[in-house]
Design a protein that fits this description.
mainly alpha, 6 helices, 166 residues
């Protein structure tokens, strides 16, 4: 079904506590079940898009569309391990941005291959990825320590290199 199920398996009890303590975006559903349902609805769309392109005649755009599709799908399988398993929230955001870029490239190639339906299905999937990326980025930004004047002033100044004057 998708990455969320794998992520839930990786979370376990300790992972649940880690996830529950994350600063979540105000536009994020409170229930993780809602995200699972949305994943279940969106994942088949991108699979059908790839199938539509695969059954077509071929050509450069066809090949590129499927290449980008497989690349984003592979990275999508890695994302839960990075975010939920390793707790690398920043790396998760970067990975989602890369997945979104590859899905967009696949969608563009699908359109250039002449399959507008596949392109439209991938556009819905791309919107979903953009939404997930916004949730991930919000969490990553909120986890960064706040810099206050006190913390900035507590950092010792380094001497300037020789020959350099202010």
């Amino acid at each position: 079904m998708n990455t969320l199920r794998g992520a839930e398996r990786m979370l376990g009890e300790a992972g649940d506590q880690w996830y529950d303590e994350l600063p979540l975006a105000p536009w994020q559903p409170k229930s993780r079940g809602t995200l699972a349902i949305l994943w279940a609805l969106v994942t088949p769309l991108e699979a059908v898009a790839a199938w539509l392109v695969w059954r077509s005649s071929g050509g450069l755009w066809w090949t590129l569309a499927l290449l980008f599709w497989f690349a984003q799908g592979t990275l999508r399988l890695v994302w839960p391990s990075v975010f939920y398993g390793l707790h690398f929230v920043d790396a998760g955001a970067v990975l989602l941005a890369l997945i979104l870029a590859l899905a967009s490239a696949s969608s563009t190639c699908m359109a250039l291959a002449g399959d507008v339906t596949a392109c439209a299905l991938m556009a819905v999937y791309g919107a979903w990825l953009a939404y997930l990326w916004s949730l991930n980025v919000y969490t990553a930004v909120r986890l960064r320590p706040q810099r206050t004047e006190e913390t900035v002033n507590s950092i010792p100044a380094r001497p300037l290199p020789r020959g350099l004057r202010v």
